[in-house]
């Protein structure tokens, strides 16, 4: 009996010890598996922070960063240069520019010196007759300071020297990159077309003329470009002293068919903005062209003689330049008078 009790007591002790060992081991496993994530190495929590939506959204790939990089990098591409996808570029200028007897060209060119990007002219570059001497004495000391980034267009004053030879000699290849006084280039996402509206001197402006055939081919070749601006001297529509010029109507017809967006002209020595309209002067905000008359580059200024249909803004008696900020699918405009205050501005999408 005593031996039986002893064996049973021994078995109970063994079972008790085995159970105790199992319980201690199980508790250790449970304690380790239940450890909080916050007690793990700091590299895990650091990875989570880097991948958070706030950090990812504050990188340099957004529109603001892209624009800032362009400004700090010296501005937008110059004539003939294309920016990358999503590029915003600046195009600034005017027509009716340099008269040695007036301070206007000096004043407006002072504005241009502070502008990044490409410069345009809308004709009548050197007064009175566009001679080589007038370009040297009147244009070169003023707007000539930004000559290396200028897209020029000829005006009727430039042709008062036979064949516009003063204009062609001064601007050289920039005025005739393809051997004609009309040409095109790309700036950022935009297609820029420069035309010669001195129709009688260049074989016409109609669709069958050399310039008209070239324009049709250029628009076909740039059909994938969403946004297009065209620059020439004589305005189709104007409230100024010269008024409307139907001779450039064929330009409008082809540009509208090619889904262009903007037209910039000079000739009348004032600033005027029109609502989008068709070639006949009917408002058309869906497919029409928006026209700007910017004959404020420095020549003698004139007053308006009437109010043309669809004229949205008019300013006379002030020199200044127009600045276009050309974005991939839209544009901003600002008229910058020499007084320093923006007097007209706005934004619109491309067609």
Describe the secondary-structure layout.
Layout: H1 2-33, H2 42-50, H3 53-57, H4 63-72, E1 89-94, H5 104-113, E2 118-121, H6 132-139, E3 150-151, H7 165-171, E4 183-187, E5 190-194, H8 210-221, E6 227-231, H9 249-257, E7 262-265, E8 271-274, E9 290-294, E10 311-315, E11 320-326, E12 330-337, E13 344-349
Helix pairs in contact: 6-7, 8-9
How would you describe what is shown here?
With 351 residues, the protein is an alpha/beta fold. The protein is globular and about 45 Å long. Residues 1-6, 18-77 and 80-84 have low confidence and may be disordered. It has 9 helices and 13 strands. It has a single domain (84-349), classed as Purple Acid Phosphatase, chain A, domain 2, CATH 3.60.21. The strands form 2 sheets. The protein has a 7-stranded mixed β-sheet with strand order 4-5-6-7-9-8-10, with no helix packed on it. Strands 3-2-1-11-12-13 form a 6-stranded mixed β-sheet. It is 29% helix and 19% strand. The protein has helices spanning 2-33, 42-50, 53-57, 63-72, 104-113, 132-139, 165-171, 210-221, 249-257; strands at 89-94, 118-121, 150-151, 183-187, 190-194, 227-231, 262-265, 271-274, 290-294, 311-315, 320-326, 330-337, 344-349. α6 crosses α7 and α8 runs parallel beside α9 (249-257). A hairpin with a 3-residue loop joins β11 and β12 (330-337).
